[in-house]
Amino acid sequence: MTMVTPEANQALNVKDIVKKATELNDFGHLLAHVPYAKFIGMQVARFGDELVFQLPKKDENIGNPTLPAIHGGVIAGFMEMSAIVQLMVFMQTTKVPKIVDFSIDYLRAGHHRDSFAECKITRQGRRVANVNINCWQTNRKALIATARAHFLIE
C-alpha cells in the first residue's frame, strides 16, 4: 500500500498552475503560490489579451511615512513579479523564468494608493525574453516607474 503524503498531494508543477489559472481566468490561484505576491497583496486581472497587475493600497508597503509613499523596493518587486507572471501566462512556461537583469527608473513618488502595472514582451528568443514594465497610479500617462527586464526561460 502506497501512502500519499500531504506535501506530495499538494505539489503542483508550474505548467499545471499556469494552465489552471488561464482556464479559470483567475490568476489569484497562480499568485497564491508566490509568497512575496501574497505579502504585498498583488492582484491581476485579464482584459482580453492583456494582463493588468494591481498593488492595492496597504500600510505595510509604505517606505516613507512622511509623504506617505510606497517603498521603492516594493514597487520594484511588484514590477518584477508582474513581468514573471506575464511571461508564465503568455508563454505557458514549465518553469518560473529566472531574472538575468532588471533596470528600473523611478519617475515620481508612489503615493499611498493603489498602483497598477502592465508588461510588454518586447523580444522572445528560445532562451531569453525581454520585458518592458510600466507602473502608474491614477493615470497611465503619469508613470511612477518604468523598468526593463531580461529573463532566462526554459
From TrEMBL:
MF (Gene Ontology): thiolester hydrolase activity
Occurrences of domain Thioesterase (ranges): 70-140
Protein name as it appears in the record: Thioesterase superfamily protein
Source lineage: Bacteria, Pseudomonadati, Pseudomonadota, Gammaproteobacteria, Alteromonadales
